[in-house]
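Lecture 7 notes: from sequence to structure.

We start with a single chain of 262 residues. Read the sequence below before looking at the structure.
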Amino acid sequence: MIRAMYTAASGMNAQQANIDNIAHNLANVNTSGFKKSRVEFEDLVYQQVNAPGAATNATAEAPVGIELGLGAKPVAIARDFASGNLRATNSPYDVAIEGRGFLQVTLPDGQTAYTRSGNLHMNQEGSLVTSEGYMLEPSITIPSNAVSVTISKDGIVSATLAGESAPQQVGTIQIAAFQNPAGLHAMGANLFTVTTASGDAITGLPGTDGLGTLQQGFLEESNVSIVEEMVNMILGQRAYEANSKVIRTADEMLSQVNNLAR
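Now the structure, written as tokens:
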């Protein structure tokens, strides 16, 4: 009975982590480029009373054993990098990636970070930056007398200057991909950084090596499904409730044992 209490407690802790993750997904349902995640669980160690295959007599063996499980725990939070829907914004600096690539930005410490959120802006120097002010890598500067800006599917950024009819190329957007994007470190602000699990960035021009192409004037929406998260939340809540009932049942059984002597 005591074992049941600790086992059920581990299940409640695991479901708490599940609900926390669902809350994070739902909180970012309107975050452009956000990728949902799910908690993966594994069973804890087993207390072996009788081993499978143990001899029951001189000529026979037990076909199954007695192994009492001690609960569950969250073992990983896996991120789903499936593409979200594209939403038209009509902003000339917004870009969505159709494919597996990431935009590259330069952090204040010089480190490169990666993002699927393509809501870009122009800063006071004419450079394309993220909403946090991080510069696109390689940097692209829009001339101050530009009257229109075009970003092609293959990343070429062109600007038409005042008094001119032909656009001029002012830069090229490069994107990056990873062997294992699920191994990237999420640092917040829609940014990821490289880890040994993700592998090094594979950079290239949009439209090459399966990196994906760019869509100007669009943003990639979060890939969170509200219906799916609500179903997951109900299941997590019921699992939490069931584990709490196990603790209550074990407590009632202990109470009955204590009352035997009365």
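The chain has a mean pLDDT of 94. Keep this in mind for problem set 3.
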